[in-house]
Specification:
Layout: H1 2-6, H2 15-25, H3 32-39, H4 42-141, H5 144-153, H6 158-173, H7 175-188, H8 194-211
Helix pairs in contact: 3-4, 4-6
Amino acid sequence: FIEELTTFDDYDLPESTLVLVEPYLKKPSFDPEVIAQKSGNSACGALCRWVRGVVGYHRIMISKVKPLHQKVEETTQAVDTAQHKMNTLENKRKALEVRLSDLARAFEEATIDKNEQEEKTIRMKKMLDTAGELRRVSTCIFRKPFIYSAVIILSGERTRCTQIFDCYERRLESVPGGCAMAAAFVTYLGPYHHSFRRLMLIVQWPMCLKERGIPLVIDSIDGLR
């Protein structure tokens, strides 16, 4: 009996045990003082008091403490759930900030590239206008009504004018090739090293244009570093 009493789990009694014991607690004879007097043994009275205390403790736990514990657990779970949702939203916010930063950087780069393309287009248009004007002037010079007088008056300049005219003719014909080279450079060669750029501009791409019958005039390659 002593061993069973010392190993008895008085902190976790099932409801069925409490229901079984409670009718005895209502009996007047199940009183610590009465039992101690009738038995002549104070230990019996102490055991009766212990039984009453255990049952009273569990009734208080069931009616008052356990609901509080359950409420604490529910509140803790709600807090954990809210914290998880907040962490998820925070991660999404950070991801959106990174995405926004990438888009802003891409927009800035695209704007810079657009401005550069517009400037190059303006320069190319000026070159085409100049070439067209020179061609018109050269055409006027070499019209038959003016040829003989020009030869007589400017016989020493005829060769130079012819060379200038031929040079601009070739340059005008090579405008598509130059535009193709410029567009390819802006599109593909930005990330690469100077030596690779120079190889593509001097060897590979001119060869590719030549194979396709597209004329190209290159004076020099500079400013690519």
